[in-house]
Each structure stands twice: as structure tokens, then as C-alpha cells.
Amino acid sequence: MSGLTAFIGMSSVLDVTDADTVLVTGAAGSVGSAEKVAWVKDVAKLDACVDYRTDYVPDVLREFAPDGLTAVFENVGGVLLENALDRLAVHARIALCGSISSGYTATGYGAGPAN
């Protein structure tokens, strides 16, 4: 189901093209793990992959998207969502799919990844 949700979100909701600078948050959840950063870059041939446990996300996003993100598929919420919002380009699109960091409770917002 995660793959189908991502496919619909990227192709129909965000309508991503080759011209976009895209961020997908929470990609290590049900479809992988943080140890798969090399796989994402070497096998899947994506330009970058961030491990929020070892990388300082704002710096990585600034380097990856100096002109801003044009499309964001957001699954995490909290601080990672705020990091993405800080890097949005003018006229960017964002699909809000989940809020993993909240534990899906009202009091949990922002309790997730800290950078």
C-alpha cells in the first residue's frame, strides 16, 4: 500500500516532472530503513538521501536544493515538515500524506526527529 500511495501522490497529486526538485520525507519507514541511503543513491539513482539521525537536515536541504524545493511529499510532520517548509521555492506544491512524528496524537506534534 505504501508504494501505491506514493505513486498516486507523486504522479497525480504533485504531478512531478523532471524539472522538479523533490523531497519525500519518511521514505525509510515501511519501505526501507536508514541503512539504505547507499541503495537510494546507487541503485535507485536518486540524487540524494538524508538520514536525519546522522545528517543535519537543514544543511543537506540547502545544499541539495539551493533554489528551493518545488515538490514535497510529506509523511513525517513536526520538525522535518518545518525544515521542508523553510526550503520551499515560490509556487511549490506539497502533498500532506502523514504525520509520523506526532504518533498521530494532538500532543505528539513536533516530538519526532529533532533537526
Number of domains: 1
> Which secondary-structure class do the elements indicate?
alpha/beta
What form results from the Cα inertia axes? globular
Uncertain regions: pLDDT < 50 for 5+ in a row?
none
Task: Tell me what the structure shows.
With 115 residues, the protein is an alpha/beta fold. The chain has four helices and three strands; from the N terminus they run αβααβαβ. It has helices at residues 2-13, 37-42, 57-64, 78-86; strands at 22-24, 69-74, 88-96. The termini are far apart. The mean pLDDT is 83.
Topology of helices and strands:
Elements lengths: L1 H12 L8 E3 L12 H6 L14 H8 L4 E6 L3 H9 L1 E9 L19
Parallel strand pairs: 1-2, 2-3
Describe, in short, the structure shown.
By secondary structure, the chain is an alpha/beta fold.
List keywords for this structure.
single chain, 115 residues, alpha/beta, Rossmann fold, 3-stranded parallel sheet, 4 helices
